[in-house]
């Protein structure tokens, strides 16, 4: 509870009147005393007739989980316990950590119950406490402002965004490509035996098994399909470069979202999926497991990845990963580089790794650099920035072209397109049996 602006203005006027009265010695002091007495009486009466903290009950609920990049809907229920709820009620949610400091509620209701809703942007993974709720309303006569604080034990858990998985987009895409038209088109071109079938008109004659046909005295076709149970390793660079924000989220969160979508696609495709994360040192290695069975564990591990401030060491990280793998695998590396020295180390280590494995190097294009390159300069500073940005883009392109020449599949795209392109690349690799 605190004095309102109205009370402060009245008290200031009374104080000025008192000062004038005291300065004029001949003036009587009784009227001044009566004025202050009346003001005090009004203040006490206002407190008596106004709803207090005890007259209001508050309940706040939050969703169990919210995806990164989306808004968490926090709902508050404010109910009266006797006296009517003030019509000019306002509510502020107290936040913690990377969620921010406060969020205003949108309130609606009646004098008996008020419902509130606040949208909290989830920009970081983690578990965040919602410490409390502040309410504010004026007294009946407007002399006081009540600002009670209600402590909360509510928490908000922000997890990687798997919206493409739960919406079924990945399932439809992978099943249609692997088990629909494409599988029929690739019959006879795979390397793993599927089944024997009687030859029907229109089938590809290259699939006829002449020895079995001779024994049966009837034409039979050997159907082949693409191999399964390949190892897919998702390698996440969690160094400080991946903390840079793009499209409202850190790069590492965009990488995690795309990695989980690809892991789900690999699970549908019958492959094994593993997880590897690193920064200055190797941090986490989850051995490859059947994709669908491994997905909950991968989701939990990526949700618990902390945001690191150390620079990544690609030499140590990729050498450590190479020693962990005992068979040819598809390795999807999410990383970034900012200078030629880091890029040279990255190229050298990927060259070694690429001799035994199939490598996809996924990185993000920098929209600010592209904007500076494509925008006309109108000053010397702008021209200097454009030249510097052009050189950086050129060096970046040289590095990616060098990786492509040694056989690494490079994906440089904006965050919104990474998941779709990565799943498409995985399906192409699987269809061509490059693993």
UniProtKB/TrEMBL annotation:
Q: Which residues form the signal peptide?
A: 1-26
Please give the InterPro entries that the UniProt record associates with this protein: DUF58 (IPR002881), vWFA_dom_sf (IPR036465)
Give the originating organism. Algicella marina
What protein name is recorded for this chain? DUF58 domain-containing protein
Pfam families in the cross-refs: DUF58 (PF01882)
Q: Which domain of life is it from?
A: Bacteria
Q: Which residues form the DUF58 domain?
A: 195-367
Q: Which UniProt keywords apply?
A: Signal
């Amino acid at each position: 509870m605190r004095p309102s602006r109205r009370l402060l203005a009245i008290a200031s006027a009374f104080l000025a009147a008192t000062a004038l009265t005291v300065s004029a010695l001949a003036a009587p002091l009784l009227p001044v005393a009566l004025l202050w007495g009346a003001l005090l009486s009004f203040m006490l009466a206002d407190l008596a007739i106004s709803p207090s903290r005890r007259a209001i009950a508050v309940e706040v609920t939050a969703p169990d989980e919210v995806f990164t990049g989306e808004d968490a809907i926090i709902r508050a229920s404010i109910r009266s316990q006797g006296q009517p709820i003030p019509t000019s009620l306002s509510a502020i949610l107290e936040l913690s950590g990377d969620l921010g400091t406060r969020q205003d509620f949108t309130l609606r209701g009646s004098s008996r119950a008020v419902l509130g809703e606040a949208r909290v942007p989830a920009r970081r993974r983690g578990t965040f406490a919602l410490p409390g709720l502040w309410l504010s309303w004026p007294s009946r006569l407007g002399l006081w402002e009540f600002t009670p604080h209600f402590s909360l034990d509510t928490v908000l858990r922000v997890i990687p965004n798997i919206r493409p998985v739960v919406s079924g987009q990945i399932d439809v895409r992978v099943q249609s490509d692997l088990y629909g038209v494409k599988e029929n088109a690739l019959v006879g071109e795979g390397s793993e035996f599927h089944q024997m079938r009687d030859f029907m008109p229109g089938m590809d004659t290259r699939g006829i098994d002449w020895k079995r046909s001779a024994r049966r005295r009837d034409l039979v076709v050997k159907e082949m399909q693409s191999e399964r149970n390949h190892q897919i390793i998702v390698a996440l660079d969690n160094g400080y470069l991946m903390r840079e924000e793009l499209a409202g989220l850190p790069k590492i969160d965009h990488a995690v979202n795309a990695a989980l979508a690809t892991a789900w696609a690999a699970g549908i495709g019958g492959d094994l999926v593993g997880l590897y994360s690193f920064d200055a040192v190797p941090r986490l290695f989850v051995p490859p497991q059947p994709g669908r069975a491994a997905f909950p564990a991968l989701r939990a591990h990526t949700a618990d990845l902390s945001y690191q401030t150390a620079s990544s060491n690609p030499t140590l990280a990729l050498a450590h990963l190479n020693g962990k793998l005992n068979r040819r695998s598809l390795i999807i590396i999410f990383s970034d580089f900012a200078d030629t020295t880091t890029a040279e180390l990255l190229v050298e280590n990927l060259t070694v790794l690429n001799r035994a494995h199939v490598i996809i190097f996924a990185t993000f294009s920098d929209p600010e650099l592209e904007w500076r390159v494509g925008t006309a300069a109108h000053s010397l500073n702008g021209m200097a920035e454009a030249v510097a940005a052009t050189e950086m883009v050129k060096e970046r392109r040289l590095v990616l072209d060098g990786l492509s020449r040694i056989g690494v599949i490079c994906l440089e795209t904006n965050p919104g397109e990474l998941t779709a392109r990565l799943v498409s690349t995985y399906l192409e690799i699987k269809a061509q049996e490059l693993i």
